[in-house]
Amino acid sequence: MKEPLLTVEGVHKRFSRKPGLVMRGIDRLSGKSSGSTVHALSDVTLSVAAGEVLGLVGESGCGKSTLGRIISGIYTPSDGRVLLDGAPVAHARGNNVEKLTTRVQMIHQDPFASLNPRMKVGETIAEGPRVHKLASAGDVRKRVRDLLQQVGLEGAYADRLPHQFSGGQRQRIAIARALAMEPDLLVLDEAVASLDVSIQAQVLNLFMELRRKLDLTAVFISHDLSVVRHVCDRVAIMYLGRIVELASARELYEKPQHPYTKALFASVPTLGTGRAAFQPIKGEIPSPLDPPKGCAFHPRCPMAGPRCKVELPLLKPVTGMATTVACHLNDGGTGIKTGSHAA
Ligand SMILES: Nc1ncnc2c1ncn2[C@@H]1O[C@H](COP(=O)(O)OP(=O)(O)OP(=O)(O)O)[C@@H](O)[C@H]1O
């Protein structure tokens, strides 16, 4: 395996909850006792090799976007570190984003919100290289036209405003803007989630084509396992701020290991495939203000045993596979054994 381009080591992210909503540990909304710290990410470790696309998948609120923003330098981790080619990524401090890394570019879900409505798309694409002095004015103009063509749009569209484009075209413009910075790493955060299914397929095909041509490295965030399948080499499944399974796309889709991953697959509608009917995952995602002890998935897990309630499972390799999984079923069973260090 190639040297990692991106290394995320033991990253935690905690947010303080707005004081008005919590009073002496009592949640005013639910009336339940809770902490005032949101544990958005806990001990996340992963790496991405140059030329690889890693998927981050999980239900809403599991920490995907927070991790994407930490990798992009937008958020600072509470603990742990993020390295690009072995060097720490510069993180924004307060409003000072000038030092923000340009080596990582993020593409967001809503291209309309992320494009300045009053700026011609050519200027939008040119802005980054101009501000960061990556090219001369003449070179930038030519590059804008080349980039528009690379994402399947006419060079002449550079003089149009964002509202003159469809959702899919706007996402192509967002991709061109990110590529204009010649980034080492792209972070795509639900980049096709707001598009119609047929347009999603076109944008995904474009991404695959650009990936091949430009040898792109990317972190691809999605809640949708069917989208990730065709795009990613490896996939990290996240639950309540932790990675619970990390596998090659092939192993994950052929032999998912974690009960949560299996539940995610079962919750995907499978029209016409002959697979069992779709079953939504039972129960609510627990609050990140007060995560359950032991395995955070145990309150919803059909396989949970006493050990799962008290002992946090760590990511460990599955025998005979490249997959790692954080589940006691992979590591001696879910019952508490005499001599176990669980307490
Ligand atoms: N700035 C913030 N302040 C406080 N809490 C936050 C902040 N950003 C995220 N969170 C919380 O951190 C947790 C993880 O959020 P995040 O947006 O990373 O999840 P996600 O998996 O990307 O979800 P979604 O798919 O809905 O965007 C959530 O409980 C969220 O409410």
TrEMBL record:
Belongs to the ABC transporter superfamily. Residues 23-265 form the ABC transporter domain. One of its GO terms (molecular function) is ATP binding. One of its GO terms (biological process) is transmembrane transport. It is found in: Cell inner membrane. Keywords: ATP-binding, Nucleotide-binding, Transport. It is a peripheral membrane protein. It comes from Martelella mediterranea DSM 17316. This is Stage 0 sporulation protein KE. One of its GO terms (cellular component) is plasma membrane. The keyword Translocase does not apply. InterPro entries: AAA+_ATPase (IPR003593), ABC_transp_ATP-bind (IPR050319), ABC_transporter-like_ATP-bd (IPR003439), ABC_transporter-like_CS (IPR017871), Oligopep_ABC_C (IPR013563), P-loop_NTPase (IPR027417). Signal peptide: none annotated. It holds the Pfam family ABC_tran. The keyword Nucleotide-binding applies.
